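Methods — Computational structure assignment.
A single polypeptide chain was analysed. Its primary sequence is given first, followed by the predicted tertiary structure written as structure tokens.
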Amino acid sequence: MSDERDKPLTLRQMLGSVLAAALGVQSGKNRARDFTHGKPSHFIFLGLGFTAIFVLVILGVVKLALYLAAP
């Protein structure tokens, strides 16, 4: 029989874990679940993707602010 604890993590669970880790608010229960059922390569890929998107958003906000501040 397949137990719910034997299921691999869903994309939604992994994204939630990456976002929580980025903010530093990951719960112990979810962290243990990630280490037990998650694949490191998936978290590395999602973490790099999140970082790239975050940097591009910050760059866009700064460029917009500089554009609007120009006389």
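Note: The mean pLDDT is 91.
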